[in-house]
Amino acid sequence: MTNSWTDIKNTDLVVIMGGNAAEAHPCGFKWVTEAKANRGARLIVVDPRFTRSASVADVYAPIRQGSDIAFLLGVINYCIQNDKVHWDYVKAFTNATYIVKDGFEYKDGLFSGYDETKRDYDKSSWEYVIGEDGYAQVDDTLTNPRCVWNLLKTHVSIYTPEMVERICGTPRDKFLKVAEMISECSSPIKTMTSMYALGWTQHSKGSQNIRSMAMLQLILGNIGVRGGGMNALRGHSNIQGLTDVGLMSNLLPGYLTLPTEKEVDFDSYMSTRAFKPLRPNQMSYWQNYKKFFVSVLKSMWGSAATPENHFAYDWLPKLDVPGYDVLRAFELMNQGKMTGYMCQGFNPLLAAPNRTKLTASLSKLKFLVTMDPLDTETARFWENHGEFNDVDPSQIQTEVIQLPSTCFAEDEGSLTNSGRWLQWHWPGGTPPGEAKTDNWIMAQIHIRLKELYRKEGGVFPDPIVNLDWAYADPAEPSAEELAKELNGKAYATLYDPTDPTKVVVEAGKRVPSFAALRDDGSTSCGCWIYSGCFNENGNNMARRDTSDPDETGAYSKWAFSWPVNRRILYNRASADLNGKAWDPSRKLIEWDGQKWSGYDVPDIAPTAKPSEVGPFIMNPEGVSRLFVRGMMRDGPFPAHYEPFESPVTNLVAPNVRGNPAARVFKGDFEQFAEPASEEFPYAATSYRLTEHFHYWTKHVWVNAVLQPEFFVEISEELASEKGIVKGGWVRVWSKRGSIRAKAVVTKRIKPLMCDGKAVHVVGIPLHWGFTGAAKKGFGPNSLTPFVGDANIETPEYKAFLVNIEPVAGPVA
Amino acid sequence: MFQPVPNPSTRPEPPKFGDQDLIRRSASTVTPPAQRQTEVAKLIDVSKCIGCKACQSACIEWNDTHPEIGINTGVYDNPHDLTPDMFTLMRFSEWENPETNNLEWLIRKDGCMHCEDPGCLKACPAPGAIVQYSNGIVDFVHENCIGCGYCIKGCPFNIPRISKVDHTAYKCTLCSDRLAVGQGPACAKACPTQAIVFGTKEEMKQHAEGRITDLKSRGFANAGLYDPPGVGGTHVMYVLHHADKPEIYADLPNNPRISPIVEAWKGVTKYAGLAVIGIAAATGFMHYLVSGPNRVSEADEEAAEKLTGEERRP
Amino acid sequence: MNMELSRRQFLGAAGAGVAGTALGAFGFGEIEAAHAEAIRAFKLVNTTETRNTCPYCSVACGIIMYSKGDLKKGEKAEITHIEGDTDHPTNRGTLCPKGAALLDFVKAETRLKYPMIRKPGSDKFERIAWNDALDRIVRLMKDDRDANFVQKNNDGVTVNRWTTTGFLAASATTNETAFATYKVVRSAGMLVFDNQARV
């Protein structure tokens, strides 16, 4: 989230699209109801199903899953056509004025530079015209036909209300009502918030779904303001934190990236990362990259990371492919190229797509280790559970070790919520049986592995035996010690670079924030964006002061918000070019002639003059990007692509199947149903229900009572067509698998008319498996395709094809 | 936002109300307290309810009940009805508004309404099995309950349920144990959107006014408060977007009132105790005394039917 | 310690204009009353309170865990009730149907209590001691790493990667556990490393 949960109370309009906040985040949704009750805010829900969020919405518009980009570009087109644009914001704070290279174009659904055999783009034409001075060229008058604004205007012009209706199945009047309500938020004194979740990410073009809304929010001037923003509602309690700390194949902590094998040394690695400003006077914050990078390496290898060995740069593994995400992991397993897999609090047998492939893959491993407080299907993938897990254990040679871990109630530390608040928690219960903390388990693995290398030798033990592990009890590092490492410290006394007599941090002390970090090895910091969380003031994550001056919803003294306790990202953009709030009633920070100050920590240098320095300092442009240059794999603008399995062909690009830049493994393509398939005619989607959390709460008696049994949801029309009765049994199958479920027949799902064709939606909730208290059932992943988003490989769980028929129930 | 009740104290505290605050006691007389406590109420704003069932969850956890894990019958309502282990239940209704053609998913939290004029208490033949405190809580006293089920017949909202384990009647207590230490009910505390709020009845009426104004601004011209006069008003009230049609909310009675038979009977026997209870009811009670187990015979059932009238609605 | 539970924070901090329910106004006077026979004794009396946050979604609601026994005093502690923390700015004491039932997660019958091993081809899990389980895991890891670690790629570039054993990180462990995990996994050279951000 750019903003926080409590900030949502400041909004005028809430758009829930690509998510279902009332069901998946009920207590966060509270702030929507507060905005409605106290500010008269309106709520729009756009979803294939009439959800519990829709039940309290002012306007509900149905949409066919996988067509969000067409809808959103339609809204952008509406805003442009009707002059509903926050012009001052767009001209000053976006790259609308930037001039794009001549080679760039979009035609027949493809951007310039496409290579069909690689399913990838040569992105060299997706770039600004750079002048001789090294700066990007701009046209403040917006008359140059090659400026971003004019390219965008043309790009979205095909998404008329009629086209939106044909692609999305959204009735024209509903679309226009939504577009009109949204467009009113182009006023500087009206703002809208976007609340989305996996309804946008779990598509083969998930990242571009989100970009579309981000672009709309920029055009309306709603980024950086109170009550505005792009608010990703993360699905798990600390998946924000796990990502911040870099637990992904290609990441280092703090969104630094792991080197690829093309970056043969430290200097070649750094050459592509410390972006030079693209405009005069601009601050480009990534110029500090080296300080953060070196400080991470120091936190890993301490005194073994020296200037002489480039801070152990070579000890980092180098990537040969963009990433070893969970999909690639299972692909490699299935190819027999993996030996072992370790799952910490993750149940991939139900969470990753195409379960048949997953079972086959796990069966090819030599060993599998699971660490979890609860029993999981993954740990028991080899066990026969009848139709729910129809395997022959004697044929599976994988050795499985299941380790019991503690749960939240028994451990200590911080979790990072969607609003980037790091909140400390304390243990209150004794763990059951022999359950151990994850810190203990990970420490045991490390120290025992290190011991084996010391004893036996082996291949390249250096990064293992030299890992900085100087904890009071190496067998179980404490949460506080680790938090202090994340915060960072100085090895030597640090002096102010502009005044060498002034001490910034004394040797051995923790740094106050990342601003104190150095690139010469004199500091360490586990995760630069978390720096400040546990500085010499103490554990700021444990703060519990509820004060909130003028009730802005910031709660600046409650816990710690990254970065540097900033509650709203890009908050400089809440003020105009003179530094005055666009909306005086929603003041956030303002320029007093000397400096920035207000309710939040300014997201700009405190003395950066408003007319000189752009607000988006993480971009070398200093402005936000409507045109994203070569930074996304599938295009600098979003474009409508159908899901890989779609009930219709792509209306705007009939020859393009799926997202042309999405990675598809050999063998998986054959397992996709054809577009507009007769064999698999129904558009399926998967989702959570409010009564359950993922695959955990089926273990919880109360939640099993509230929603006991697996079901699918269909419209009354489809039910009558297929002879399916409410509460009866159905079989649902895709090209990859088959499941049996109860049928919920509902008015909340209606057939969508897409270009004259009735598209029936089949809704498939997750939450059931073969362990726990609830009735045994299936997950949607028995059916879903093995393909992910082009940029970050999020599986396409939200749009795929199935067939359905009534069947007899199980034999009692 | 409606000001939440502060976190509970874990130190022992004297209860804030007790037997001296009883204003009614089934099949017996009480000495009315000199001063009535301020009446409390739970307000359920159906228009803010997201049907999440947090109220059900909190109710189970607070009251330490253990409902069965059921099955899916093609709807979201689970369990399928109120039970001795499930005192509150979200009831889901899909209603197509003929005026707007919009689908409205009406989700009503069902449970005891804590009537000012409680039909259950009036129908109850067991002395002291049902009591009413001056703050408005209608509570069941299990030690005194004979499991006859007349309370169900007497209830215009069909709320109490008889346990097959201990053969006594169960329903929402309004979390009397929490109220006794100054807390609100567990469901109200949990409710994520504050669709359930708790306070004095006056406060709740005022709060409802604000909600109704907001709903009218959103096109719900008939938004209103459900505080049915037929039972003397209730200590659980609803804000409805369509207050003119309560029946669309999973058959919420349009004009609930206690069966005329119960009324007539009570008119004569008010607070008079077992001796003057109608013959039929007395038979049931005698049956309990001689047979021991809290079973109700068919004859009792018939008697009860006569006593309380047929089905309560519509 | 900042975890001290204040009971009046929001009442104190809330400015004018907030519709405050004055609990005193319930009519609960100061007169001491005997416990009515129907009214259950308040079950949180004399329990120990510990502040935590809900482990489910990313709203991170504040919760208070009530236990018999106090870990801070070195006692065994059994959690007996969990309820929303009214002082928390986001949830203000409210909880969703999952959060409100957290106690049943902590005490779920399917909580794991002992390390288990399933041998190749077997149809059952068997108990294994922690020490043996951990030794076995690192043996399997080291054998694979030594056999398949790639120090240089075909172009002779130092790559130091290990791609035949992978690690899936959790979605609800703490940041501190995440960092410890990061150090252990990356220092071994593992690239097949992912978390649950996408599902």
Secondary-structure blueprint of this entry?
The complex is a heterotrimer of chains A (812), B (314) and C (199).
Chain A: E1 13-17, H1 21-24, H2 26-39, E2 42-47, E3 59-62, H3 68-81, H4 87-93, E4 106-107, E5 110-111, E6 114-115, E7 120-121, H5 148-156, H6 161-168, H7 172-183, E8 192-196, H8 198-201, H9 206-219, E9 230-232, H10 239-244, E10 251-252, E11 256-257, H11 266-271, H12 289-301, H13 326-334, E12 340-344, H14 348-351, H15 355-363, E13 367-372, E14 399-404, E15 413-416, E16 421-425, H16 438-456, H17 462-465, H18 479-487, E17 489-490, E18 494-496, E19 499-505, E20 523-524, E21 560-561, E22 589-591, E23 596-598, E24 682-687, H19 701-706, E25 711-715, H20 716-722, E26 729-733, E27 738-746, E28 752-754, E29 757-759, E30 761-765, E31 800-807
Parallel strand pairs in A: 1-2, 1-8, 2-3, 8-9, 12-13, 13-14, 24-30, 25-27
Antiparallel strand pairs in A: 4-5, 6-7, 10-11, 15-16, 16-21, 17-20, 18-19, 22-23, 24-31, 26-27, 26-31, 28-29
Helix pairs in contact in A: 3-6, 3-7, 3-9, 13-15
Chain B: E1 22-25, E2 40-45, H1 54-63, E3 89-96, E4 103-110, H2 119-123, E5 130-133, E6 138-140, H3 150-154, E7 161-162, E8 169-170, H4 176-179, H5 186-190, E9 196-200, H6 201-217, E10 224-226, E11 236-240, H7 260-269, H8 279-291, H9 298-308
Parallel strand pairs in B: 2-11
Antiparallel strand pairs in B: 1-5, 2-9, 3-4, 5-6, 7-8, 10-11
Helix pairs in contact in B: 8-9
Chain C: H1 9-13, E1 48-53, E2 62-68, E3 78-84, H2 102-106, E4 116-118, E5 126-127, H3 130-148, E6 150-152, E7 158-161, E8 165-168, H4 175-187, E9 193-194
Parallel strand pairs in C: 8-9
Antiparallel strand pairs in C: 1-2, 2-3, 4-5, 6-7
Binding site for [4Fe-4S] cluster 4 (chain B): 124, 145, 148, 151
Pfam family, one (chain B): Form-deh_trans
Protein name (chain B): Formate dehydrogenase subunit beta
CATH architecture of the domain at 5-235 and 622-631 in chain A: 3-Layer(aba) Sandwich
Cα distance spanning the termini of chain B: 36 Å
Name of the level-1 CATH class of chain B: Alpha Beta
Major β-sheet annotation of chain A: 6 strands, mixed
Q: What fraction strand of chain B? A: 15-25%
Helix/strand structural class of chain B:
alpha+beta
Q: How is the CATH topology of the domain at 5-235 and 622-631 in chain A named?
A: Dimethylsulfoxide Reductase, domain 2
Biggest sheet of chain B, strands in spatial order? 9-2-11-10
Q: What's the count of strands of chain B? A: 11
Protein name (chain B): Formate dehydrogenase subunit beta
Domain 4Fe-4S ferredoxin-type (chain B): 40-59, 103-135, 136-165
Pfam family, one (chain B): Fer4_11
InterPro entries (chain B): 4Fe4S_Fe-S-bd, 4Fe4S_Fe_S_CS, FDH_Electron_Transfer_Unit, Formate_DH_bsu_Proteobacteria, Formate_DH_C_sf, Formate_DH_Fe-S_su, Formate_DH_TM
